């Protein structure tokens, strides 16, 4: 097991170095002069030079890259041009909000997705199955920003039940719950749809297995057959998807956060890109990659614990 | 397991969670404003973005302010005068003013602030601009004098009315350390109460404000980057004031009695710049032909109605120095005149209806950003289309903003859709950069010695009447050279709930001290 863990950790290092290089290259591959963009369209040449120096853009490429890596290794990830704060601190201030939204949307999507998937699988080719499949298809196909606006119209504009946007407070308060519901639904819907389809197909597959037939033939009630024997095995691929989703969501749900004015990393990235805050874009990208890698590593480890075959591969 | 019961239970839980708990209405005189982005940094010499500047303006005071009608009026300076050689500006400061941290406002703070803004170590964004200041002298506790490197009538606009002109507390600078940049302490009508990054800034009324007492008890500023979300928030009562909206939404809300839509032309000029260094626009007759070929008001009315106003010069119509629309030399819409000018320049109708000189067709590329300015790409496309009527072939080159700016600034363009934004209608802020020889926004190689002389005088002529004449002459020279096709001034927009009273919408400034909820 330990060898497996060490191997996985070592494999993560080149991934992160690659992400760092990619994030860094964005600054150099994007058209235009970053210093001039930061200074503004009507800036004096002298101001542009000052900014170029401040950004370190007057240094050779390699020096700039090493500085960025050095800053990242120190855990600072550079300093925002707009706010002058360390990227680490900016991200740290926003990450909890992204985390709570990611977790809330995943809980919702797992709850809805698994239930709908089971409903479809245990009654294949019935109205339940077709209904669930149709809803899942709609869920995958609906753009998040549009769904977000529809939810706002329904729950805020017409019904007046929920605040349209923003974070109302901590999750243990009513205002906190009210404010996270719509973004969590909007963000969780595509995942719920994927999970529903995956649960359905996986469960159908398992229900055809011999051991399920054995379970049925020994007289177990259907609920025990599905819930106890079939579902456990059917959910293994679902766990993979959930792990991947969580990793991606923790990097910031850009559109959802933007639509619902959610103060997470997604909003931070969009604002940074919009205002050409290059160190912020670089740093946030690298941190998002780091989080993704760490979450996936955790998922791999959980997998290895659950399924011994994996660690002996 | 009965799967059908579970979704029902979930839906029921959701409904129970929400029912009867409508969003709570804000307390009386707590006004919630939607900002287009979160605020960033409040050290005045580093404030460069509108969303932050807009909040800073409520917390800090400058020495002088703009009134709602664009005049310059006293703020922390009660009065000021200039020396006979017009180089020294002396300000009599308001007495008994205190910062929000209870420290005293006096001439030493003003001196400290401007010296800091000029110190290269402090990273001031305004240093280059403030270098017109040669020396600063405290004459007594409440009198301070600035001596300039040369006479400059626009000194107040150029220095004191920038974000760098906000006066912060020196005590805060000395005691707060790095937090100074994130916890503004000024003398303004509102005090800093809370900032939750990405969520809200809360300002409270300053009970010791030197001016008329502000009416709102609290102002909450929420960053809402998505335009549609801002509209829904306004309609559902989450916001009382927003600064953006699509044309369709603004039209819809203007018919709704629950809201008031405010629009005023602002100091944001849009125009087509023709590069005089490269053919075909190195020939003034071709530039004039383009001006004659286009019916700008018609195009603007079709594409930007309700969001911008057609203009006839590079000076915004809201500027006090703009006499009236139609008072400058402009080009009557006349395809015949356009064709005649092209013929005079040696262009003859050729294949495909395009003018040719020998084998050379009359064609150019129009650079355009996409979405940087209101309807920029669309306007560029329509203009190109219209120019075909007089035999000019034009292709729009839509570029990503960074790449666009790099090419245009390097003069690598034939013609380009461009804009110039300022926070005031002071004419030198438009003319000097855009058309003076070597001006920092003069990308098309425009140069006219007579114009340069007029602009030089414009900076030293202290009589407003004289300045009006000078800038009218400058506009005429610019228009006669046909360097630009002036297009429009974009509107400054705000939508407020009709419960909000006392708000006056102005291009010159935002004043939130007078508004209240009825």
Task: Please tag this protein with its features.
A: 313 residues, mainly alpha, 15 helices, B: 518 residues, alpha+beta, seven-stranded mixed beta sheet, four-stranded mixed beta sheet, 16 helices, 24% strand, globular
Describe the structure.
The complex is a heterodimer of chains A (313) and B (518). Chain A is an all-alpha fold. Chain A has helices at 2-29, 34-39, 45-55, 61-73, 87-122, 127-141, 144-158, 174-207, 210-217, 222-234, 236-250, 254-259, 265-274, 278-306, 308-311. In chain A, helix 7 (144-158) packs across helix 8, helix 8 (174-207) packs antiparallel against helix 11 and helix 13 (265-274) runs antiparallel to helix 14 (278-306). The longest helix of chain A has 36 residues, at 87-122. The N and C termini of chain A lie close together (11 Å). The N and C termini of chain B lie far apart (56 Å). Residues 12-26 of chain B have low confidence and may be disordered. In chain B, strands 11, 12, 13, 17, 18, 19 and 20 form a seven-stranded mixed β-sheet that branches. Chain B has 16 helices and 22 strands. By secondary structure, chain B is α+β, with helices and mostly antiparallel strands. Chain B has helices at 5-18, 50-59, 107-118, 127-130, 155-160, 170-176, 227-235, 247-254, 284-293, 296-304, 335-344, 376-387, 401-409, 428-435, 449-460, 464-481, and strands at residues 30-35, 64-66, 72-74, 77-82, 88-93, 133-140, 143-148, 190-196, 200-205, 218-223, 241-242, 259-274, 308-310, 348-349, 355-357, 360-361, 363-368, 393-398, 415-421, 484-497, 500-501, 516-517. The interface between A and B is large, with 66 and 55 residues.
């Amino acid at each position: 097991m330990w060898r497996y863990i060490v191997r996985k950790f070592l494999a993560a290092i080149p991934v992160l170095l690659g992400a760092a290089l990619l994030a860094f290259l964005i600054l150099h591959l994007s058209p235009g002069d970053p210093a001039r963009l930061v200074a503004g369209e009507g800036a004096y040449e002298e101001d542009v030079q000052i900014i170029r120096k401040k950004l370190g853009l007057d240094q050779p490429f390699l020096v700039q890259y090493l500085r960025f890596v050095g800053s990242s290794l120190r855990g600072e990830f550079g300093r925002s041009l707009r706010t002058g704060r360390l990227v680490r601190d900016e991200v740290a201030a926003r990450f909890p909000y992204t985390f709570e939204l990611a977790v809330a949307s995943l809980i919702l999507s797992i709850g809805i997705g698994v239930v709908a998937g089971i409903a479809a699988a245990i009654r294949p080719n019935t109205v339940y199955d077709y209904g669930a499949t149709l809803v899942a298809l709609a869920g995958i196909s609906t753009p998040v920003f549009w769904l977000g606006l529809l939810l706002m119209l329904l729950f805020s504009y017409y019904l007046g039940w929920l605040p349209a946007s923003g974070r109302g407070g901590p999750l243990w308060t009513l205002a906190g719950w009210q404010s996270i519901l719509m973004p969590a639904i909007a963000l969780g819907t595509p995942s719920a749809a994927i999970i529903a389809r995956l649960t359905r197909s996986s469960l159908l597959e398992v229900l055809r297995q011999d051991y399920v037939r054995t379970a049925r033939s020994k007289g177990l009630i259907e609920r025990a057959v599905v819930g106890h024997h079939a579902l456990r095995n059917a959910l293994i691929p679902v766990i993979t998807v959930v792990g991947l989703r969580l990793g991606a969501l923790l990097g910031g749900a850009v559109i959802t956060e933007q639509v619902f004015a959610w103060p997470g990393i997604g909003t931070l990235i969009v604002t940074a890109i919009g205002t050409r805050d290059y160190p912020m874009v670089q740093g946030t990208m690298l941190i998002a990659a780091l989080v993704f890698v760490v979450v996936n590593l955790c998922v791999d480890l959980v997998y290895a614990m659950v399924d011994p075959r994996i660690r002996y591969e | 397991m009965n799967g059908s019961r579970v979704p029902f239970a979930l839906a029921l839980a959701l409904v129970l969670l929400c029912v009867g708990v409508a969003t709570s209405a804000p307390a009386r005189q707590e006004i919630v404003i939607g900002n287009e982005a979160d605020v960033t940094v409040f050290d005045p010499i580093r404030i460069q973005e509108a969303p932050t500047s807009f909040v800073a303006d409520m917390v800090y005071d400058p020495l002088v302010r703009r009134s709602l009608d664009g005049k310059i009026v006293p703020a922390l300076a009660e009065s000021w005068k200039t020396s006979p050689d017009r180089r020294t500006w002396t300000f009599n400061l308001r007495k008994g003013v205190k910062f929000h941290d209870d420290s005293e406002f006096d001439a030493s703070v003003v001196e400290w602030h401007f010296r800091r803004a000029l110190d290269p170590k402090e990273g001031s964004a305004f240093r280059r601009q403030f270098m017109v200041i040669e020396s600063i002298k405290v004459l007594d506790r409440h009198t301070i004098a600035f001596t300039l490197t040369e006479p400059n009538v626009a000194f107040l606009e150029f220095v004191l009315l920038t974000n760098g002109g906000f006066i912060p507390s020196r005590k805060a600078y000395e005691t707060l350390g790095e937090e100074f940049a994130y916890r503004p302490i000024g003398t303004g009508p509102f005090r800093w109460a809370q900032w939750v990054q990405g969520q809200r800034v809360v300002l409270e009324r300053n009970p010791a404000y030197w001016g008329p007492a502000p009416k709102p008890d609290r102002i909450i500023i929420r960053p809402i980057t998505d335009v549609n979300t801002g509209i829904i928030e306004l309609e559902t009562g989450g916001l009382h004031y927003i600064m953006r909206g699509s044309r369709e939404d603004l039209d819809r809300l203007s018919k709704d009695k629950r809201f008031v839509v405010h629009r005023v032309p602002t100091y944001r000029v849009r125009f087509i710049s023709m590069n005089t260094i490269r053919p075909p626009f190195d020939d003034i007759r071709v530039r004039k032909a383009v001006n004659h070929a286009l019916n700008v008001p018609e195009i603007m009315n079709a594409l930007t109605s309700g969001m911008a106003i057609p203009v006839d010069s590079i000076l915004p119509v809201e500027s006090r120095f703009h006499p009236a629309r139609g008072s400058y030399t402009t080009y009557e819409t006349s395809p015949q005149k356009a064709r005649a000018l092209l013929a005079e320049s040696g262009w003859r109708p050729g294949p495909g209806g395009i003018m040719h000189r020998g084998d050379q067709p009359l064609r150019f590329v129009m650079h355009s950003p996409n979405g940087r300015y209101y309807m920029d790409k669309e306007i560029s496309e329509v203009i190109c289309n219209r120019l075909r009527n007089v035999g000019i072939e034009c292709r729009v080159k839509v570029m990503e903003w960074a790449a666009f700016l790099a090419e245009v600034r390097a003069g690598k363009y034939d013609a380009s859709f461009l804009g110039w934004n300022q926070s005031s209608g002071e004419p030198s802020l438009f003319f000097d950069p855009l058309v003076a020889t070597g001006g920092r926004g003069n990308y098309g190689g425009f140069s006219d010695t007579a114009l340069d002389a007029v602009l030089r005088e414009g900076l030293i002529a202290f009589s407003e009447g004289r300045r009006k004449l000078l800038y009218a002459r400058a506009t005429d020279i610019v228009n006669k050279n046909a360097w630009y096709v002036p297009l429009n001034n974009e509107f400054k927009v705000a939508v407020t709930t009709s419960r909000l009273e006392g708000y006056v919408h102005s291009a010159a400034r935002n004043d939130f001290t007078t508004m209240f909820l009825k």
